[in-house]
Specification:
- By secondary structure, this protein is an alpha/beta fold.
- The protein contains twelve helices and nine strands.
- It has one domain: 3-Layer(aba) Sandwich (Rossmann fold), CATH 3.40.50.
- This is NAD(P)-dependent oxidoreductase.
Amino acid sequence: MTILVTGSAGHLGEALMRTLRAEGRWARGIDIKPSAFTDMVGSIGDRAFVRQAMSGVRHVIHAATLHKPHMATHGNRDFLDTNVGGTLNLFEEAAASGVSSFVFTSTTSAFGAALTPAAGEPAAWVTEDVLPVARNIYGVTKLAAEGVCELFARKSRLPVVVLRTSRFFPETDDDPDIRNRYSADNAQANELLHRRVDISDVVAAHLLALERAPAIGFGRYIVSATTPFSSGDLAELRNDAPVVVERLFPGAGALYAEHGWKMFPTLDRVYVNERARRELGWQPQYDFRFLLDCLRDRREWRSPLALDVGSKGYHDEVFVEGPYPVG
């Protein structure tokens, strides 16, 4: 039973291919770029290529996409052709081939403007029930692709699971204010509280989704590290996040200081993964408590898989302001 993995030269695609190969499972990686984890080079925008790649495939994990950092180097049509047109090609060929399950990698960025409360409002408690408000072409096309997923689940009875993943890339932040005030490690450690997930946990969620899709039919889940916060913390998080963190994790501030780190002063959102844990049986391991334990023991807090995949960037060229041409 071959598993097709799109975007096999990217962060998640490589992580999936590494894991599947290590488990001895049949997997076929496709990407527009050659790599050690890409078996077929071509574009998901090419229907004939997709048809060829789908031969003998029983399961699909669709991780290929144009990302937010591509907005400065690609036009709106590129996003539509890849993120929507490519997804449609994959679904049409998957349905024609009798694929048993399909997992689509979406993004918490799809929530868009719903992630930023008005001034004076508490931090947003982000569950799957929050209504997305697309903020840019990336969000528009990911939401449209999710619509394609739901359409084929309903019309073709193809089991589909959509995973809205939070940040798992190791590159520095595209916000210059964050880049200038925090090291990448410090910022990403902070994000485990509310908007980040380790790539090893992301892979685990995808493989569980692939397995559970036939029983689910269609489902949409947030994939982010388990937050230590509750909805009762939201007002205080928007005003003084370090106080909340210290209350939940006494000594965290001193531990951070030992490493020359500092906490974000405020948080504007909290991603909630409860539905994914309950319905997929997902048990993410790399959360903020794990991070603190590693800091105390001076151990690596990222997964071995995250270290193996490493940093890839999103462009072939290097820009003046870090890995991104905008921000």
